Amino acid sequence: MDKATVHGLLERELADEPPIGAIVAEAVRAGSALRRRRRAWAAVVGVTVAAAGAVAFPAVTGALGGLASPVSPTGQHARYPAVVVLSQDGRVSELGTAGRPGRPAFSVGYGEIEITPNGKTAYAVTYPRITPVSVPSGRRGKVIKAGHTPDEIAISPNGTTAYVLSQRAGTATPINLATNRPGPSIHVGNAPRAVAFTPDGKTAYVVNQGGTVTPITVATNKAGTPIWVGGSPFNLAITPDGKTAYVPGTGTGMVTPIATATNRPGKPIKAGDDPFAMAITPDGKTAYVLTMPRSVVPIATATNTPGKPIKVCDNFSDMAITPDGKTLYVVCDNGNYGDGYGTVIPIDTRTNMPGKPIRVGGKGSTAIAISANGKTAYVANFNSETVTPINTATNTPGAPIHVSGHPFAVVAAP
To answer: Phi then psi for 11, rounded to 5 degrees?
Structure first.
């Protein structure tokens, strides 16, 4: 969230501050790019989540994930961190037993954090360095110097390669994760803002704020010809089959599909006035675009046809899709009732009909993450210093969990 989060909103809200990249690796498989709202210390915490409030919530175990699901070579999910909350003042809290936040584990500074697919090592980008940290022990490895002013990091699905972006230098720097040695920086374009790998790990796509997307062949670390998409893109989403990358063009009202087989852009898809984030259902059939004004636009990926906009709220801040693909949750940071309390709107992806807003009992709701089993959603409430669990079977909120320091991001194991 990410991933979330959102860069476009961050730049508007914090125009007087230098760009710092993402705060935390996206953990929702759908790939929501709205995981960040403020700066925070990057950290990882081991945790098991138990019951919270009056509603029964299932325990959650697993691994803190990024754009690639943290699955071991044997196909089993690693059992490391599960739910982590980041706060504006630098606190990192686990959601412990009985819904109480636990102790911080380790901090490595301002920046972004990603984790290897096997869940064993976290890589924290904290200008001007990258710090590897052993997740089970919390021990820090030797600092890696990669690129000029590193901002973003993404790890390949097989866990062998990471790319670190530098917005100021316009580069992506590869790191061999077996040795933690960086390779020569690759020039990718003007102000690279996000990078994502295809599911097979053969190609990485870098979104440049200058209006282009640069493909990188991972085997050779060679950049291909930049693909023009226009606008000021901040993120992208790739379908589960790896055949199409969708790039929302902030300020253009369009989403550009890119055929990964040819790296050719398709006809732009109209999606509201100002699309800036996307989530794709696990079956790859529908892409949802969060866009101004106050709506979510579904796109049928088979035909790249936009559907009727789904009205949500004036001030949305995040969205996530359940692992079964049946429900899309949209976070409204100032609520639907005019009292400032946040709400979450569930959308049935089979009908694209919004359900009754869920009042989360907190103000300034900024982010959402869904547990691996899809049974619980967690909503961070910035102003109220709480995290609210939601039972997704009934869309019933539990008692808000107090988390100090103004939480703005929450991540859960995929």
So the answer is: -65, -35
C-alpha to C-alpha distance for 40 and 61, rounded to whole angstroms: 24
pLDDT tens per residue, the chain (414 residues)? 333 333 333 333 333 332 222 222 233 222 333 333 222 222 222 222 322 222 222 222 222 222 222 222 222 222 333 455 555 554 445 554 334 444 333 444 445 667 777 767 777 776 678 888 776 565 778 999 987 788 888 899 999 999 999 999 999 999 999 999 999 999 999 999 999 999 999 999 999 999 999 999 999 999 999 999 998 898 899 999 999 999 998 888 999 999 999 999 999 999 988 898 889 999 999 999 998 878 999 999 999 999 999 999 888 888 899 999 999 999 988 655 556 789 999 999 999 999 999 999 888 888 888 887 899 998 988 888 888 999 999 999 999 988 777 776 666 544
Q: Residue 56: which CATH number?
A: 2.130.10.10
The answer to whether position 381 is within a domain reads no
Distance CA 6, CA 24 (A): 11
A 10 A CB-CB count for 378 gives 29
- Residue 89 to residue 283: CA distance in whole angstroms: 38
Residues forming beta bridges with residue 247, ordered by sequence position: 256
Q: Which structural domain range is residue 146 located in?
A: 7-330
What are the tokens at 77? 């999910």
Residue at 382 is within a domain: no
Number of neighbouring beta carbons within 10 Å of residue 73: 9
